[in-house]
Amino acid sequence: MRFVLASRSPARLATLRAAGIEPEVVVSDVDEDALLALMPDASPQQKVIALAEAKGREVATQLADDDAVVVACDSMFEMDGEVRGKPSDAGDATRRLRQMRGNHGTLHTGHHVIVGARSTSSSASTEVHIGPMSDAEIEAYVATGEPLHVAGSFTIDGLGGWFVERLEGDHTNVIGISLPLVRRMLAELDIDITQSFQLAV
After folding, report:
1. Quick check: is 66 catalytic?
2. Selecting from 2.40.30.10, 3.40.50.300, 3.90.950.10, 3.90.1150.10, what CATH number does the domain 3-196 have?
3. 74, 157, 170, 192: which is the annotated catalytic residue?
């Protein structure tokens, strides 16, 4: 089975590989800001699903392969009523992390799966509790560059994992792709993901 990940995220790719799937990566060219501008009153879940759908459809059109399984995702972090994608720069990441320390928010990930002419969409949400962080720790973390490339300005599978104290929900969703949700979505489309497992070396 040709399994295509419509995302450039190395964390999503690593998560699928660790779970026994070796996907082909094909990145879309969706104008995320333009799409979001069309839905100012949408909920975070609606926004991430819309972005995932747009990315998945564009990649599926590029492939023109009815046998391919295309999985697209998009994530946003919501805290105190503010929805956040990737920070605009180091200053923005620093500001966000100062607000997040000792606080909690929700990571929303939209998922869109396409198999031929059929498709399905859904989202998963995980509550993330961030521990105390000193100004020096935030400065050091931002200096690594890691927070600049991820929704919410933190990771759990990298350096940011030192600061995440607790999760309520699926931990793979925080990485950017909910494996349990994708398995259920594939099952809706009559795909048994276990048939694509790669043997561990």
Report:
1. no
2. 3.90.950.10
3. 74
